[in-house]
Write a structure and sequence with these properties.
By secondary structure, the chain is mainly α. The protein is built from eleven helices and two strands; from the N terminus they run ααααααααβαααβ. Helix 1 (2-15) crosses helix 2 (20-30), helix 1 (2-15) packs across helix 4 (51-57) and helix 4 (51-57) crosses helix 5.
Length: 291
């Protein structure tokens, strides 16, 4: 991630024939919110260092004991062998020693007592693939990202553990919508519950997608990496994408339920199922993960 950001900054500077500082300001104008991490990176970029050297000098990239030094680009031009990377790294660390130490404190944000509990909850959520916000503990949420309803059906009552998408209707949902498909109540003409009238014989299918990043619809839009296409509009979805681990399950060919902003209409299995039978609305879950 660090190498990609530094690479984009270098490309922006070259494309607009500007300084690194100006390129950083341009990128920050594109990105929603204030991502101060980019300002830290900009301090250490100069024409003698490539992105690998910058990120290793800031200790955002690490080398495992006994393993080669990981790098994305070729070593600096003035050195033909891999030792050139070590030489450039040694020079960079001595040059930016103070900045590197201050950046290490920034990257260890979870060490702060006020944020420690939040970090632990985030780790628990990601490890167990559970919604970050789930007030009734039924594993369904009214919040879209962080394993929320972008991934599973949307909870229509997050204060009642017996109400969640895909469950069997409670007494044909005569009094309330227990399975979140939007169908409940009684037809006053004949006294038959709408769920029974429309959905009898169309029981919940409980379709679950287990898979990797393909099922999760992992996607990095080209305009995030292509300086000639960058604009504030191209980064509008960045916060949402990061909180969904750069996955777009709401646009997936399996579980997608929204019109895609990253490549046309989503003709998904879920939308086809929903078109055939509204009784199964939100009766499809995605618990895929990257890797």
């Amino acid at each position: 991630g660090c190498v990609l950001v530094v690479s984009v900054i270098e490309q922006l500077a070259q494309w607009h024939n500007s300084t690194v500082k100006a390129a950083v300001e341009r990128l920050c104008d594109y990105i929603p919110g204030k991502y101060q991490i980019i300002h830290h990176l900009s301090c250490c970029i100069d024409r003698e260092m490539n992105a690998d050297v910058v990120c290793h000098s800031l200790r955002l990239c690490k080398q495992d004991p006994g393993q080669p030094l990981c790098h994305l680009y070729s070593p600096p031009k003035r050195e033909k062998h891999s030792s050139g990377l070590f030489h450039a790294l040694a020079c960079a660390r001595s040059k930016h020693q103070i900045r590197s130490k201050s950046f290490m404190g920034f990257s260890s944000v979870c060490a702060f007592p006020l944020l420690a509990n939040l970090c632990e909850k985030m780790k628990y959520v990601l490890r167990n693939k559970l919604p970050f916000q789930d007030f009734d503990g039924d594993k369904f949420s009214t919040f879209p990202t962080l394993r929320g309803y972008h991934w599973r059906g949307r909870d229509c009552n997050d204060k009642n553990t017996t109400v969640y998408p895909g469950r069997r209707p409670d007494n044909w949902d005569a009094k309330s919508d227990s399975n979140c498909n939007g169908i409940w109540g009684v037809d006053p003409k004949d006294g038959v519950p709408y769920e029974e009238k429309f959905c009898k014989g169309a029981d919940s299918k409980g379709v679950v997608l287990l898979g990797d990043s393909a099922g999760a619809h992992f996607h990095i839009p080209p305009e995030w990496m292509t300086v000639t296409q960058m604009s504030a509009k191209s980064f509008a979805n960045l916060p949402m994408a990061f909180s969904d681990e750069l996955d777009w399950p709401q646009f997936s060919e399996i579980t997608g339920f929204l019109n895609s902003t990253i490549g046309g209409w989503t003709d998904s299995l879920y939308l086809r199922l929903r078109k055939r039978n509204r009784c199964n609305h939100r009766d499809l879950q995605n618990i895929s993960q990257n890797g």
